[in-house]
């Protein structure tokens, strides 16, 4: 038995109220369960109970075993002097108050419905499964699921924006600078994300602003900083960038990042770090003051249009500096832009709106509901348990559900878990 589950039973009164009585055979009526206290002290504060003919106001302490009272040294802690009821699952000891009278005790297992216990066992005590409720989640009603998904999405958005806030503080609230860093990390995807972030952070954004208006200078800066201009390559474009970078490196006192930080291994050519750097150069060169432009956009098609930039002609026939290839435009795909919108643009816009005190939640939902659902192992597993996602809003919610509720078994804090515990939904 889990003490958190006992808290849940008491908080939501999931026990029989008929003939409810204390261990001392006194009739018990719960007038108010009290305020759930997650800090030090009794578990529920300011409860109101009627024990026998007397009405009491005070605190309630809950344990799996009655002897836990002494195990936790509550008898010498003044915070527990105002406890009016001890709720336990097993009564293995008599607890005495300061006046040496037995503390009124409720043995909860005598009053809990067997259906609730079966549901609890299925959630918490079965052999390890992918998610605790995988045999039951598809039976939860759509109203509960849809409302919980929206809550999950905004929890995820809040958490992402909080992480971005830390970066923003370091950059003195320069949203343009933070956008550059976050987009750079996204351009690197999972394999090269950290290397791209180090690249973006290796140059003060004031320098980025100065050189981004001249494409060759900007390309020289990023390719030079990432170490791709260190080699001796007999190519005119490479030489141009190399000479340009030599000047920039001296002028701004720059330090090169080793190109060994960037991986090409088992990657599709379009995801090569050289191509992603070239696309990043084109984007910030052609879309000056990008953050200011993004803030005003509300339609998905406008985001696609803003990111519809072409790489330098050299990269249309190259995937690296060494060899030529068949010509291709190497534009940012819609699926890649979707990832940028989901992982960077919306969290950053959300943070920006919060900083100004006006958050348009519906606009975020509207955009994400128009984006196709993400494809990853977690979403695939949800499909296997008959929980499908129609769009990116729902995939984001399901990712939050799996990572922050299912994995740590926070079923008692989850709307789905609560529904399952309260109803006959297990197969």
UniProtKB/TrEMBL annotation:
Superkingdom of origin: Bacteria
Protein name, as recorded: DUF2851 family protein
